[in-house]
């Protein structure tokens, strides 16, 4: 079902061919469930539950959405399917709404911070390095000078991988090679950014599972060391989540936030069949905004998250 | 959020204490709890439903044994059913080819390259000559990654930097493997989405060209509801022979395992337990079932303990316990052995019911530091005969170990309690049984 089908037009042709098969939308189902009825009944709620849970929204958040919808219907009385649909959209939107972080919301306005330092964190294989490559491209397009830091000194060929993205973007990549201290890479990256007058410094880190205390402490250290160069760095700590991840994303958000005060989320691999619905609950519970979505492996396949589009697309036919 | 399933079932059965038979009414509520727990563990929505229907059937009408509570029986039914669904017996890897070809496939970032290398390491240790083939021509530095891992393991890696056609690289790799007389060729491929028709056709063609004995679907254990779609799509194209479930060293419950098994009915052959080359285990359905149900991985714990604990040492301590001769020297030795078992928090997390409790605790491996310091500050005589440690000795030990008198008192008290407890266990067990069977018996 194409319920998370909120991509911009250029991406659409590419995505549509894949989404076609699975496209039987929430709206279709809701419409069917509501034919000839004047109140929300169990059949409708069962349908809604199935759709939300199957998109990884999770039981707790699904129940919250249903409760909120019921309360709203009791108060506002809907007249038709279209209206109920709007109420539902509105309630889900609210869960994504209350973002407390005041990080820049696009690539051009960095609120006078220079260099704007971004540290990218997440579990293994979610798409950190790729997202950095795509971000560098967007920042450059917005006229920013970018420096990358190869802070994954652990995984085989991780430095090499980031260097290739550096070359693609024609930006400097600071690296000390494999098996070196990632904190010192981060330090030198920020320092280099200051020296050459770069606008943005983005630091890659090795993938790590959030239940490994030692590795989480290492992240805190990397963060602290950067502050020796620029006191308020890193300005953005971006937690990358894979759209195919299930409920474990909650634990990821919790532990990474505890170690590094995450203030932005990126949701990758939304070009696949996974819906990434878990991000609704994560954004709500931790009050962290979703900033980016990843929609492919190419350099252009990164988009700024747009709540309205995201929610609208949940209900598009 | 992830409340232990046994706890949930317990709750659902609370009002039914004393009931001798599982009936329709008390089952309905329990099934709902079980379904929720399964979905929380990322089991697919529909599969969770089918599963609880089966369990319900099995549960209805069962007589509750007098010694067992309905909830315990229900947990057992769920656990048994889940274990059975997850796999029956452990499945070995098919190595009958000449050379045997193993093709790796899966979504982006699931762990294909890492597990190609881990498998190479696993098979090499079993004495096979192995070759790796780098057929990911898309991801930046993918070939380099496999080359680095191959070099670490001293396993040859076949690659063609200039060739952009994975099918032809695969064919050339097979030729090279035959020429080098390798017994196993492991083929790493690019990550791909199941809805990317071009890429799915490509891997279909690699399969045709190689005719592999094993096609392993590599999937991230953290995968959510989408596991069914992806597994089905890959199976439709490849008819794969087995599954590798990766990143199980995390704290995900891994419900995707059940979803995948149910939808394609292919054996899960390996579990990935870390980034290191040794972190590969054969799959154990019973452990996976307990993990999904949040019951802790008690078997792993026992096995880990068995690996580390020196049997002779254990026997010696056992005898001492029985004769009530357990001293602080022995205690110190035990601490050293426990420390060898690995990260304390990991270990505690494997104990049923404890997993959740220690999750938020910051247990460092220094947990024993204070105890060690106190023992180190004792004289040999004090270690052997703790009874002689009077008030002034306690003061001396406290200042010598940098702790305070309360901590010393506490340790002495705990030691005494432990000695008493051990003595009574010793009596119950009788002589001749080894330590190992003791605390973790199933
Ligand atoms: N389809 C798709 N693939 C993606 C996306 N983002 C990343 N990938 C792919 O996912 C795989 C892993 O990406 P990486 O950027 O290496 O992930 P990482 O988090 O840096 O991985 P580690 O550093 O090993 O933890 C690669 O094959 C990427 O091409 C996306 O938005 N869509
Ligand atoms: N903790 C942990 N990390 C793992 C495990 N298996 C793989 N990884 C890590 O997951 C990330 C991705 O692994 P890769 O082997 O590059 O994945 P891949 O499927 O080859 O990725 P693509 O080629 O981009 O599709 C790396 O950071 C690995 O170190 C595992 O069992 N446990
Ligand atoms: Mg990376
Ligand atoms: Mg790979």
What does this structure look like?
The complex is a heterodimer of chains A (317) and B (442). The radius of gyration of chain A is 21 Å and the shape is elongated. In chain A, strand 7 and strand 8 form a beta hairpin. In chain A, helix 2 (26-34) runs antiparallel to helix 3, helix 4 (59-76) crosses helix 5 and helix 5 (81-95) packs across helix 12. With 317 residues, chain A is an alpha/beta fold. Chain A has helices at 9-19, 26-34, 42-54, 59-76, 81-95, 128-141, 158-169, 182-196, 213-226, 248-260, 278-286, 307-314; strands at residues 116-121, 146-151, 172-174, 200-205, 236-242, 264-268, 290-294, 302-304. Mean pLDDT of chain A is 85; it is low at 1-24. Chain A folds into two domains: 9-95, SRP54, nucleotide-binding domain (Four Helix Bundle (Hemerythrin (Met), subunit A)); 116-306, Rossmann fold (3-Layer(aba) Sandwich), CATH 3.40.50. The longest helix of chain A has 18 residues, at 59-76. Chain B is of the alpha/beta class. Chain B folds into three domains: 5-86, SRP54, nucleotide-binding domain (Four Helix Bundle (Hemerythrin (Met), subunit A), Up-down Bundle), CATH 1.20.120.140; 100-295, P-loop containing nucleotide triphosphate hydrolases (Rossmann fold), CATH 3.40.50.300; 301-437, 434 Repressor (Amino-terminal Domain) (Orthogonal Bundle), CATH 1.10.260.30. Chain B has 20 helices and eight strands. Chain B has helices at residues 5-12, 24-40, 45-59, 70-86, 112-125, 142-153, 166-179, 197-210, 227-238, 256-264, 285-292, 298-308, 311-322, 328-340, 344-349, 355-359, 369-376, 380-384, 391-401, 405-429; strands at residues 100-105, 130-135, 157-158, 184-189, 214-220, 242-246, 268-272, 280-282. An eight-stranded mixed sheet of chain B has the order 3-2-4-1-5-6-7-8, sandwiched between helices. The longest helix of chain B is centred in the C-terminal third of the chain and has 25 residues, at 405-429. Chain B starts with a helix and ends in a 13-residue tail after the last helix. Chains A and B meet through helix 1, helix 3, helix 7 and helix 10 of A and helix 2, helix 6 and helix 9 of B. One magnesium ion binds next to helix 5 of chain B.
């Amino acid at each position: 079902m194409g319920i998370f089908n909120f991509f911009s037009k250029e991406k659409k042709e590419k995505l549509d061919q894949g989404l076609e098969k699975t496209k039987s939308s929430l709206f279709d189902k809701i419409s069917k469930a509501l034919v000839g009825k004047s109140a929300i009944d169990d059949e409708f709620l069962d349908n809604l539950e199935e759709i939300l849970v199957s998109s990884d929204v999770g039981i707790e958040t699904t129940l919250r959405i249903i409760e909120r919808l019921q309360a709203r219907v009791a108060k506002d009385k809907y007249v038709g399917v279209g209206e109920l649909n709007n109420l539902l959209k509105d309630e889900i939107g609210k869960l994504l709404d209350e973002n407390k972080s005041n990080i820049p919301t696009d690539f051009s306005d960095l609120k006078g911070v220079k260099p704007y330092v971004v540290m990218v964190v997440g579990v293994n294989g979610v798409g950190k390095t790729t997202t950095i490559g795509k971000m560098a491209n967007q920042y450059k397009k917005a006229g920013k000078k970018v420096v990358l830091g190869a802070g994954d000194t652990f995984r085989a060929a991780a430095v090499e991988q980031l260097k290739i993205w550096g070359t693609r973007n024609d930006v400097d990549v600071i690296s000390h090679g494999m098996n070196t201290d990632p904190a010192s890479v981060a330090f030198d990256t920020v320092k280099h950014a200051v020296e050459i007058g770069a606008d943005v410094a983005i630091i890659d880190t090795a993938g790590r599972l959030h239940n490994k205390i030692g590795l989480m402490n290492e992240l805190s250290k990397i963060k602290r060391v950067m502050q020796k160069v620029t006191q308020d760095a890193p300005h953005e700590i971006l937690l990358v989540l894979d759209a195919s991840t299930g409920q474990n994303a909650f634990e990821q958000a919790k532990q990474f936030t505890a170690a590094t005060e995450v203030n932005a989320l990126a949701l990758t691999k939304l070009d696949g069949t996974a819906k990434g619905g878990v991000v609704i609950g994560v954004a709500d519970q931790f009050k962290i905004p979703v900033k980016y979505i990843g929609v492919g492996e190419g350099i252009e396949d990164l988009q700024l998250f747009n709540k309205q589009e995201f929610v609208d697309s949940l209900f598009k036919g | 959020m992830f409340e232990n399933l046994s706890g949930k079932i317990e709750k659902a059965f609370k009002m039914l204490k004393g009931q001798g038979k599982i009936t329709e009414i008390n089952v309905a509520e329990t099934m709902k709890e079980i379904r929720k727990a399964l979905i929380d563990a990322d089991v697919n929505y529909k599969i969770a439903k089918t599963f609880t229907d089966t369990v319900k059937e099995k549960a209805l009408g069962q007589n509750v044994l007098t010694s067992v509570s309905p909830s315990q029986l229900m947990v057992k039914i769920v656990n048994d059913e889940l274990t059975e669904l997850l796999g029956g017996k452990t499945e070995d890897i098919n190595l009958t080819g000449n050379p045997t070809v193993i093709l790796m496939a899966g979504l982006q970032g699931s762990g294909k390259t890492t597990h190609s290398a881990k498998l190479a390491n696993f098979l090499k240790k079993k004495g096979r000559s192995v070759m790796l083939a780098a057929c990911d021509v898309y991801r930046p530095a993918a070939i380099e990654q496999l080359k680095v891992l191959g070099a670490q393991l001293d396993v040859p890696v076949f690659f063609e930097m200039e060739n952009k056609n994975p099918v032809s690289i695969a064919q050339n790799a097979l030729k090279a493997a035959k020429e080098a007389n390798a017994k196993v060729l492991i083929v790493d491929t690019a990550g791909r989405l199941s809805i990317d028709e071009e890429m799915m056709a490509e891997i279909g063609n690699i399969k045709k060209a190689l005719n592999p004995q094993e096609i392993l679907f590599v999937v991230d254990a953290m995968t959510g509801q989408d596991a069914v779609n992806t597994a089905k799509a890959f199976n439709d194209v490849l008819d794969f022979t087995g599954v590798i479930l990766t990143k199980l060293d995390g704290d995900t419950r891994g419900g995707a395992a059940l979803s995948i098994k149910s939808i394609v009915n292919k054996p899960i052959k390996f579990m990935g337990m870390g980034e290191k080359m040794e972190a590969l285990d054969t799959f154990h359905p019973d452990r996976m079932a307990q993990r999904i149900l949040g019951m802790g991985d008690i078997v792993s714990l026992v096995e880990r303990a068995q690996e580390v604990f020196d049997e002779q040492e254990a026997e010696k301590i056992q005898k001492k316990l029985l004769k009530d001769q357990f001293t602080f020297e022995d205690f110190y030795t035990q601490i050293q052995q426990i420390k060898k078992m690995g990260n304390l928090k990991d270990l505690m997390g494997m104990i049923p019911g404890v997993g959740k409790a220690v999750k938020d605790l910051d247990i460092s491996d220094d947990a024993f530091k204070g105890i060690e310091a106190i023992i180190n500050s004792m004289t040999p005589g004090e270690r052997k005969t703790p009874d002689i440690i009077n008030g002034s000795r306690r003061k001396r030990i406290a200042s010598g170990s940098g702790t305070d008198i309360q901590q010393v008192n506490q340790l002495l008290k705990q030691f005494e309690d432990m000695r008493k407890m051990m003595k009574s266990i010793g009596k119950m067990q009788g002589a001749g049984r080894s330590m190992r069977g003791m605390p973790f018996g199933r």
